[in-house]
């Protein structure tokens, strides 16, 4: 019954067996349920190792100047070689400015 209905748990199978007049405890049913093995999924470590060449990080850094102005530094880092791909500085970044910097970083 557990093979035919893999989504049923011990309580459901126990209830069905009681309907047929088979007196078993729920613990006995749970003991004999067949568990199907799923193939193991990929771990995060394996995923990162497989896709490290396609990964990049983008960040804005806030830097105060000597005259107490605020500058925004846009940085793109490649994880494969651990190097800076692109950086730029702006006092007033906009979404268009950021989109242009991303287009420059990934030609």
Report on this model:
The chain has two domains: 1-38, no CATH class; 50-105, no CATH class. A hairpin with a 4-residue loop joins strand 2 and strand 3 (83-90). With 107 residues, it is α+β, with helices and mostly antiparallel strands. Strands 1-2-3 form a three-stranded antiparallel β-sheet, covered by helices on one side. The protein contains four helices and three strands; from the N terminus they run αααβββα. It starts with 9 loop residues before the first helix and ends with a helix. 33% of the residues lie in helices and 24% in strands.
Task: Write a concise synopsis of the structure shown.
The chain is α+β, with helices and mostly antiparallel strands and 107 residues long.
Any key phrases for this structure?
single chain; 107 residues; 2 domains; three-stranded antiparallel β-sheet; 3 strands; 33% helix; rod-shaped
Write the layout of secondary structure elements.
Elements: H1 10-19, H2 26-31, H3 44-51, E1 56-64, E2 70-78, E3 83-90, H4 95-105
Antiparallel strand pairs: 1-2, 2-3
């Amino acid at each position: 019954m557990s093979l035919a209905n893999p989504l049923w748990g011990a309580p459901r199978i126990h209830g069905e067996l009681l309907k047929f007049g088979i007196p078993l405890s729920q613990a006995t049913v749970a003991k004999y349920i067949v568990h199907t093995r799923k193939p193991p999924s990929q771990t995060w470590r394996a995923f990162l190792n497989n896709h490290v060449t396609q990964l990049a990080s983008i960040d804005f850094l806030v830097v105060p100047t000597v005259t107490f102005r605020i500058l925004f530094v846009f940085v793109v880092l490649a994880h494969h070689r651990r190097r800076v791909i692109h950086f730029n500085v702006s006092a007033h970044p906009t979404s268009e400015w950021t989109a242009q910097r991303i287009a420059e970083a990934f030609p």
